[in-house]
Amino acid sequence: MFSRSSVYQCMGCGEKEIISEASLGAIEEIVESLRRNVRVLGNGWIFRGEGVANQGVVNEIVSAIENGTPRTVRTMLDAGWRVEAAQALYIYLTRLEQPLIPASIQSLVLDNNNRNVPPEVVASDVLGLIKDELPPRHIALVALILNLLDCSIKMSPADELRGHTLPVSMLPHFFNIENHHFMDEWRRILVIFVELIRQASTTLMPTPSTSTAHLR
């Protein structure tokens, strides 16, 4: 019987936070705005605004996230720079230089020995380890991004290929996908990731951070 607790322990997760409270607050502002406007922006723009985004504004928002200034981010969003904010969030996640899910937890998904375990079971166990092993702000960041992806996918066109474009583009932010992963493995990982996104909306509930609570 498959058991995450008996084989896969998050031995290397540690207690160091991946993000500051203030930077998390800035990301909360972006995610909340994008969720409210996902129908306007469309699925294809959520994390891919290179062609239409004002790069100067994008850089300014990236700096605001990194410096932890939620008020600046909110001001930019109120001015209508939502596509730029989405691109800035993507850039910020890229600059973390590590997947949002630690390698020890990723092993549940990437280990080919689990190929016969149903995707929903693997996803549930991954979310369980995230809740049990990661520090609070790290959990909150993962929850925010997965929640945004879930919202965007639900609003995406019914076409299956288009519906999977966004999860594909975000896979490297969550998993170390190596060249040696063959196509069938890659598809299995993607199916688990989509299930992870779906379950996270009820398993990992984002809660407002103290950095932005006073702004509301």
From TrEMBL:
A GO biological-process term: signal transduction
Every Rho-GAP domain range: 17-204
- Listed InterPro entries: Rho_GTPase_activation_prot, RhoGAP_dom
PROSITE patterns from the UniProt entry: RHOGAP
- Annotated TM spans: none
**Sorted alphabetically, which Pfam families does this protein's record hold?**
RhoGAP
Spell out the protein name for this chain: Rho-GAP domain-containing protein
The organism named in the record is: Rhynchophorus ferrugineus (Red palm weevil)
